[in-house]
Amino acid sequence: MARLSLNQATVKRATVAEAVEGCVRHGIESIGLWREPVADHGLERTAKLVADAGLRVSSLCRGGFLTATDNRAALDDNRRAIDEAAALRTGTLVMVVGGVQGDKDLVGARHRVADAIAELSGYAAQAGVVLALEPMHPVFCADRGVLSTLSQALDLAERLPSVGVVVDALHVWWDPDLDAQIVRAGPHIASYQVCDWLTPVPADVLLGRGYPGDGDIDLVRLTRQVAATGYAGDVEVEIFNAAIWAAGFDEVIGEVARRYREIVEPVL
Amino acid sequence: MARLSLNQATVKRATVAEAVEGCVRHGIESIGLWREPVADHGLERTAKLVADAGLRVSSLCRGGFLTATDNRAALDDNRRAIDEAAALRTGTLVMVVGGVQGDKDLVGARHRVADAIAELSGYAAQAGVVLALEPMHPVFCADRGVLSTLSQALDLAERLPSVGVVVDALHVWWDPDLDAQIVRAGPHIASYQVCDWLTPVPADVLLGRGYPGDGDIDLVRLTRQVAATGYAGDVEVEIFNAAIWAAGFDEVIGEVARRYREIVEPVL
């Protein structure tokens, strides 16, 4: 399981210490952290905790939310997020770029994202951090992420230093152009995340994620394609799901490891 | 309001007779019908009712659901739907092509759709009916429609006789390639449908539609683009929304007409 990473959001109620302990207990060598629980535990303390446990930090979630017409405060916050990623010794800051801002101007919002990422990329490069742009499933276009396809994210990653992309199965699986865009993404993939798409979509669409294997995504095919690009980084399991959040951490982390070994690892 | 069409699903609880009466009362000259209420009223009786009221039938909803590995029964049902469209004197059968079939084989499902549409297109041409392929928002890829973009639908419409596309604002608004695909769609647009995307998405994602103007879609921009292609057909207002379904038909139809006059008609 050398490349499995537990994204902390999968055990949302766990503290940083509990998540780290769970990884160690289950032989998981890498963790994806979130800013809020890291702040709760303390940035330097978290860096030490993770290092002492022998874990890698596969990514920090998350920067972004850059679509406001006045995004100066957001840019400052993103610089802090870059510093935090560097302090945690991860080279990957996941970026959820923000949605339409109530003015119906999707085209304008996308331009503001491109400008903001360009502005942040120099700072990120100096810090040794890649801004990992996460294309979001179009169901989140209005409120979370106006980058809707891998193609859009790659248009930025190809022309800016220290900018990469996240391939999150849930966000990209439906894309008719996925095969070609995964090939194109190869050198720019900063993070590969897996979970599954559940049908019917639950009452809160944000929580429509299941364990790998429980939904409609062909994760074997996708993982094989990502591996074929030469991507050699961690594979994060990131699941937002009310029932999984309500379950015991140990049970959840064990199931994550089991699904990874069963579905993902054989085709890496 | 010469080009406004009331899609019957907007007043889901209304019978065909009630929907037709509402159109006449509000000066709406066209209606989009659904197969089930038409069957309830009787096919020939509906054709006569609509003709006597002086209404056009802008479309019949819906054929499709062709992704099963054995789709012979579905093909038969689609031939009946084509016959029904012809009997109702509409040239447009809206096609919702079907989702992934539980086997995670999205690529295979898309191939089956292409084959099935090719098989049906000759029959449709003979009946004088256009199969109007409706790209569905990717949130419906698993359970309703594996055609996720206008580009995919156009790949079929461009090479098959009697095959066109539906531009439904709700399904296409997020697409980063929308501007170019609308231009490409020009001669193939068989139906233009409007409603709005509501945020947050309600508990049933199918019902996340609002009156034009109430959500995040720039319908003025989109309508202008559709009009610029030379599209001269009807504009259907199709809204799935629990609160709108619970309201009185007269109130709803009046509001549909008001929004159309306010937002759509000025830019047609």
UniProtKB/TrEMBL annotation, chains A, B:
Xylose isomerase-like TIM barrel domain boundaries: 23-246
Annotated signal sequence range: none
A family per Pfam: AP_endonuc_2
Key words, A-Z: Isomerase
One example GO MF annotation: isomerase activity
Domain of life: Bacteria
Keyword Isomerase assigned: yes
PANTHER family tied to this protein: HYDROXYPYRUVATE ISOMERASE, XYLOSE ISOMERASE
Name of the molecule in the record: Sugar phosphate isomerase/epimerase
Organism per entry: Lentzea fradiae
